[in-house]
């Protein structure tokens, strides 16, 4: 009986069982009543949301019905479990399932090749905070790692929040509106653009403090073979199997403008990246074993260049600099997130502080938080604005391309994301016409697209020519779409 009472799943169900027990066994009524009273008092004092596990959602009358039977909410867990990559995110950490995961873990700790204990400790230190639904205690290598952590993966409560405080309330018809997402309830906001973006970037950009967990895709992990994180809410949201109603008012508002959605996503990403940089700096000041400067904060291609003589090129003194560049010899800070958003040349102090050769962790900790606050505020502002006009956005994009050269791969990739969002908001006929053009532009950005240049531009992968890409985009915009501003 104490086991039943110690688990908060369906208070009404527990009360019914308890009343039946009282009627059947009146002799033990005082003892059970005391247990219930202690349980209620304990729960009333513990206001922190707790994970209950996906089993609490899995009955056929809740979210675990057979796919295709009943309304979508009734089989949403079944859709997720069958098709969503989050469901298997924990299992792919197993060496039996993924040779890549094993390779990454062994590179992080060679002892993990033969030691199960060492393998598990790497998972707890580096992996399960994103690949599982866990508490800080479960990431502590002094505690055993339960197999259920890997089996459940990124389950319902990882995104929706620990359910202990809201599992009963969310059954009520009155459980609607943004008040559900107040901190006291423990339910996370998955409906608004900003809420969903902030929910995702905890793992897909990273954090060293959210939920009391360290989720840090640092240079060690990337060097070991984990893909660098290049999150885009629009693409991720589209690619996931929808276990939610796509034609609901909430989703219609969410997807009303691809341009707005991507702008909010990129501002949120930059905010999270800046906060992560700040946290890395602060944590290094407390513990010097945490690397500093953290190389994953900077542009990969600035260092990872071919060193063959045929590729050698002295930087030109009169080369046009981007808004982010200090010199060709220095990596750019958080290039993927800051490109087309952060103009460091407007603030020389920011430019100096964020340059790796002058990297002072105290200053970075401060400036990172300021950038994070600035861009989170911007994301919230954009989310409340009317959907941008596609013609205006196209003209703006073309004018920028005609005025400024694209300096590197990151600038071209962000340009494609911007163009893609505009095209998504165009009428169907225009979108269809441009589909092949967008596919061609995307192929130009792929790393395996061939070596078209004997001297690749700095800050780009070998074989990529940003000016070739730029010329192609200008041609598309002027010949296909015919915006008001014509190319010269």
From TrEMBL:
Q: Keyword Kinase, does the record have it? A: no
- One family from Pfam that matches here is Cytochrome_C7
Superkingdom of the source? Bacteria
Q: Where is this region: Disordered?
A: 447-469
Domain Cytochrome c7-like, chain residue ranges per copy: 118-204
Q: Signal peptide position in this chain?
A: 1-33
Keyword set for this entry?
Signal
Q: What is this protein called?
A: Cytochrome c7-like domain-containing protein
Task: Give the organism the record lists.
Answer: Rubripirellula obstinata
Question: Could you read off the lineage of the organism from its UniProt record?
Answer: Bacteria, Pseudomonadati, Planctomycetota, Planctomycetia, Pirellulales
